[in-house]
Specification:
230 residues, alpha+beta, Fumarylacetoacetate hydrolase, domain 2, six-stranded mixed β-sheet, four-stranded antiparallel β-sheet, 17 strands, globular, Fumarylacetoacetase-like_C
Length: 230
């Protein structure tokens, strides 16, 4: 069979480290759930029980552990949002809630970086959030821990510190929509695929990051993710 040719070099496959494995997790798409913790919804001025909604980041927005994140252009208000990330081994559409966890490969700690000022202007103008959420280096992520090792956490403390000072402190049990519910609902809108990642939302306490800051996100059972803002 003739090898395909391209008019420009094809992009490399984006992948995420898997803990205690020499193999890595190839990334297909990156989905994110908005306002999935009641306290965070309230601090952003919204009701604490709304149907889940989704936005996307790009696979090449992911940042491996230990890689400094450059402060993004066109913002003066960069915010941290530490989240549980779900990695899918199987896809599908219209997945039943009771079947959803069988589609999960594992879990990781993620950091949803947000140009908050840009997002606020987009909300006022009823415009998409892409420039606020889906910019380069906006999705640092730790190593994926397989569900075969970790299980499927329904609870567990989630925290964030900036330069050692506490910022976020919540629990996975506080999610408005559980992981199975997120997968089921998302699969009604998109045909999910192996390699998809889902950032599941963040608890209250989000705040500003400045150049030189070091943010450390931690989730019980998953360890820590340290990110420095260059």
């Amino acid at each position: 069979m003739t090898e395909p040719s391209y008019v420009v070099p094809p992009p490399p496959c984006v992948s995420v480290e898997v803990r205690d494995s020499t193999a890595s997790f190839p990334v297909h798409r990156v989905y994110c759930v908005g306002r999935n913790y009641a306290a965070h919804a309230r601090e952003m001025g919204h009701d604490d029980r709304e149907p889940p909604f989704f936005f996307q980041k790009n696979p090449d927005d992911l940042v491996a552990p230990g890689t400094p994140v450059p402060y993004p252009p066109e913002t003066a208000d960069l915010h941290h949002e530490v989240e549980l990330v779900v990695a899918l081994a199987e896809g599908g559409s219209n997945i039943a809630v009771e079947d959803a966890l069988s589609h999960v490969y594992g879990y990781a700690i993620g950091l949803d970086l947000t140009r908050r000022d840009v997002q606020a202007e987009a909300k006022k103008a009823a415009r998409p959030w892409a420039t606020a959420k889906a910019f380069a280096h906006s999705a640092p992520i730790g190593a994926i821990v397989p569900a075969s090792t970790l299980g499927h956490p329904k609870s567990g403390r989630l925290t964030a510190t900036v330069n050692g000072a506490p910022r976020q402190d919540g629990d996975l049990a506080d999610m408005i929509w559980s992981v199975p519910e997120i997968i089921a609902h998302l699969s009604r809108w998109f045909v999910l695929a192996p390699g998809d990642l889902i950032f599941t939302g963040t608890p209250a306490g989000v705040g500003e990051l400045k150049r030189g800051d070091v943010v450390v996100g931690a989730i019980e059972g998953l360890g820590e993710l340290e990110v420095s803002i260059a």
